[in-house]
Structures are given as C-alpha cells and as structure tokens.
Design goal:
Keywords: Disulfide bond, Glycoprotein, Hydrolase, Lipid metabolism, Lysosome, Secreted, Signal, Sphingolipid metabolism. Helix content is about 30%, strand content about 25%. It is of the alpha+beta class.
Length: about 400
C-alpha cells in the first residue's frame, strides 16, 4: 500500500513538473522587500474574524461562522468528491465516506465529535463528509514556520500554510483546485470563555482542530506535516480499525492552546503525547530563548531543536523535513528562507522582514493559502490570504 501510494505520487509529480517545464522560474529568487504592509498581486485580502464561545454547547459553537461559509464549504467538498470519483469511478470511496465515517464520530474525544455534528447540521452537509474534511489535514499539509528573536528579546512567530498537494492540478490555469477552494474558508477565530479570549487561531471554516494559534501573553504554536512511511494515513486507518491510543495532531494542538498554561508545559505535552501522524510542532514562548521545533514520530519524540541566542541561533525554521537532513531538491523552501533571514539579520527582524521572506518564491508557492504573523508580547495575530501569480513554482 505504501509503495503503491509513493509510486502514484511520483508519477503525478512527474506529470506536473512536465506540464510546468516551460513556466517554472528558477526555484529561488532574490529575497523580496517592501511587501509589508501586504500589497500587490501576492496579497488577496485580509481575513475575517469570528468568535467561538466555549461556554456554548459544542453543537452550537460554530453555527454563525458556518452559516456564513456553508456555500464555499459545500463547493470544496464537492470538488473533493469529484477527485475521489475520478480515481475510483465506481463511487465506492464516496459511499464509504457517507455511510461508514459517521459511525466513527462517537470515537472522537469530547468535544470534537459534537462540534463536527453541529457543523454538519449547520451546513446541511453529510456528517461523513465533514468528518473527512477534518481528517484531511493530518495527511496533506505542506508548510513553512519560523520563530525568530530580535536583539531586544522580542519573539516573532510566523508561517505560510500550504495545502492541496496532488489534489486537482489545473493544467490550463496552473493552480491546485483544492487550494483555490480553501482560500474562501480561511478565518481568524477568537475562542472565548466567560467573555475572555482563551486563544486565537487562523483556521478553515468547518475544521475544529488547530494548525496555527496563539495563547495571548503565553505562547504561540504552529504545526507542520512530517513526511514518513509511518505516516498519518496509517494512524487514521488504525483509528478506523479500532486502535485509538494516539491523539489526532490537530486536536492535540487545540487542546494545548485551550488548556496550556506555560511554554514549558506545552513543550512537554507536544513532545510526549502519542499522536496519529508524525509532525513538527513549532512552539514559541514569551521570554528570550523560548522557541523550539519538536520533531515527532507517531509514538515518540525524535528531537527538540531549541533557540540558542548565545550560540548565534536566533531563529528556528521548519518546512517539512528533519532539520538535520537535507530537504528534497525539488522541494527546498528551507534554503531560500534561511538565506533571506540571514540577509535580514537579527537586528532587523520584524513582521515586515519575515513577511518579505514568506513572500519569496518558492517559500511562497501555488499551494500557499495564508500567511500568519504572531507576536506574543504584543498579543498580535495578523493573517492574510496569499496568491502566487504565474510564473510560480507548484509547491
């Protein structure tokens, strides 16, 4: 099964690269400048804020947001079904999603199953398809995350969220179908309890886990996918078959954002909790030196890579490869990102210079849906919809 998936992916990769051969510029470009405040063709707009009241019953929490976003959510799910039917013309895969997945909703930890039920009801969409949508991000997320400290000790945490690899390449328009349909679903959310903000996040409407968030005044957190043969699809399959001793990655990050009380406590939870999919957790605190990349296998922590100012390590940067190994040559976002940060230097690091780095190809690419910038000391989260006009690399 693993070999078949890898072989199919390589075939598709070859096809896409071939179709783009005349249009792809060099995989690195000069570091951009002057892109912040966001402007120009790579900026598609600001992201709307919503509030989720954690004092409400889980079934009711997302109704206002979903009532605004049910049309683009329905469009995305239909596109996913079309892709599934293209690979499995019998329609059996969609049938399994609609008939089998709903029976698993009760196996999800509280309150996530009830929230997903409420989203399905509010959107008027099949429960199995909303659950599938929430599983997606355990498997297909490709990202760049960074935490950097300036010379005053202020920490900046930022990320590009790239999503949709191998999900519907449009040869004519040179876009990923799922990526294009995801952008209208990007939202900023304030999670509140007792009328006080518990944490904030940039997320997708209908998705109850967290990939990007900040606990005001305490820590910031992003999650990147980690490629491994013992991947998320194996964890999801095990869950379906009844082995449920691991935690969903995005549910873990949400739980940490909601309940974590300190950088160190969050670091321990993210490094020691058994999870369904391998991952990188990028964590920033509220004091000088508090930042790290936690490299996770499903059942163990492989490495914790800390910020180390005395040794000159003033930033930690993670894409989708172990930091001690070279990235794939066809997917090297790390080298150009580091080049831009090193050119900027610690003295000049800021939202503006980090946004410039995240706007430089191929760090910015056809999969990029949004960029989020966070400053825990200023309790600031800014997020922007992104676009990479052609010519642009596919990932």
């Amino acid at each position: 099964m693993v070999r078949l998936r890898m072989f199919s992916s390589l075939l598709l990769l070859g096809y896409i690269v071939g179709s783009l051969a005349q249009d792809v510029p060099p995989y690195t470009e000069d570091c951009r400048s002057g892109t912040y405040p966001p402007n120009g063709p790579t900026f598609l707009g600001n992201i709307e804020w919503y509030t989720v009241n954690l004092d409400q019953a889980p079934h009711e929490r997302w109704q206002k947001l979903i009532s605004d976003k049910k049309a683009p959510l329905a469009s995305l799910l239909q596109a996913i079904k079309n892709l599934a039917n293209a690979f499995f013309p019998s329609g059996k895969l969609v049938e399994i999603v609609d008939k089998v997945l709903p029976s698993l909703i009760g196996t999800l930890p509280y309150p996530y199953g009830d929230e997903i039920k409420g989203i399905a009801d509010a959107a008027g969409l099949p429960l199995g398809e909303i659950l599938m949508y929430n599983i997606f991000y355990e498997i297909f997320t490709v990202c760049t995350s960074v935490v950097a400290e300036d010379t005053s000790g202020k920490l900046y945490h930022a990320r590009n969220l790239d999503f949709g690899l191998f999900l519907g390449w449009d040869v004519k328009n040179h876009t990923w179908a799922v990526t294009e349909l995801l952008r209208p679903l990007v939202v900023n959310v304030k999670f509140q309890r007792n009328n006080k903000t518990v944490f904030v996040s940039t997320s997708f409407a209908g998705y109850v886990g967290m990939l990007t968030g900040m606990k005001p005044g305490i820590f910031t957190l992003t999650m990147n996918e980690r490629y491994s043969l013992d991947g998320g699809y194996i964890g999801v399959l095990e869950w379906i078959l009844g082995k449920r001793d691991g935690m969903w990655m995005s549910f873990l990050t949400r739980s940490v954002l909601e309940n974590g009380t300190s950088y160190e406590e969050s670091k321990t939870l993210l490094s020691k909790t058994k999870i369904l999919a391998p991952a990188y957790f990028i964590l920033g605190g509220n004091k000088s030196g508090e930042a790290c990349v936690i490299t996770r296998a499903r059942d163990s922590c492989l490495d914790i890579w800390d910020l180390d100012i005395p040794k000159g390590r003033w930033y930690v940067l993670e894409t989708n490869y172990d930091h001690w190994k070279a990235p794939l040559p066809v997917d090297d976002r790390r080298t150009p990102a580091m080049k831009c940060l090193n050119k900027t230097g610690q003295k000049s690091v800021s939202f503006a210079t980090i946004y410039d780095m995240l706007s430089t190809k191929p760090v910015l690419n056809k999969l990029t849906t949004y960029t989020t910038l966070m400053s825990v000391s200023e309790n600031t989260l800014e997020a922007y919809l992104r676009n990479c006009p052609s010519p642009c690399v596919p990932w």
